Amino acid sequence: NLEFKKFLDATHYRPADDHNFLRDWQSESYPKGWENKPVTWVSIEDARAYAQWSGKRLPHEWEWQYAAQSNDGRPYPWGVDLRSDSLPRADHGPKMQPLSDVNAFSKGASVFGVLDLTGNVSQWTDEYRDPYTRAAIVRGGAAYQPAGSIWYFPQTHRLDEHEKYLLMSPGHDRAGTIGFRCVADAD
Fold first, then answer.
1. How far is it, in rounded angstroms, from Cα 15 to Cα 61?
2. Quick one: pLDDT at residue 187?
3. Under 8 Å between Cβ of 137 and 162
4. Tell me: the pLDDT tens digits for 48-103?
5. How remote is the C-alpha of 58 from its chain's centroid?
6. Model-level pTM?
7. Long-range contacts made by residues 122-125, C-beta under 8 angstroms, separation at least 24?
8. Checking DSSP bridges between strand 178-179 and strand 122-129, what pairing results, if any?
């Protein structure tokens, strides 16, 4: 949230379709104490605008996979077993609770030291188009999993799982369960 706020302050960015844009912010800022939580309620276009401003880009799906898994086939960024000390607890309540800080689970780091890859928010990666539809692959799985709901993706903690998100319009694509990370090409 803090980094996205810097982007907004520097560029005065405002999407043409601003429905649901930063829905959990008030008075053009994130709630107190949310500076280290992942920014959500941003469309893939909003995430790309931030990435371009920062001199980076959104990762391709395979880049996200490699940062999370390396080349050893591990099912989780931290290793072979699902461990509760490596990711946020699932939120099954009727209302979504605040997300965890992006640095809250150091034991969940990948081999490369990348934090917050799974279990907090799903993350935008590649977009695919055909003559009739647009869709994005989101990786990482969100903590919010309301019990009994058919409207939310099943949890995808494992690195051999992903979500395909049908894109309709930025205002409808934004969600409290989807954020992003940026990457830069290495020399």
1. 25
2. 82
3. yes
4. 999 999 999 999 999 999 999 999 999 999 999 999 999 999 898 888 999 999 99
5. 11
6. 0.93
7. 122/153, 122/156, 122/163, 122/165, 122/177, 122/178, 122/179, 123/64, 123/178, 123/179, 123/180, 123/181, 124/44, 124/47, 124/58, 124/178, 124/179, 124/180, 125/58, 125/59, 125/60, 125/61, 125/63, 125/64
8. parallel
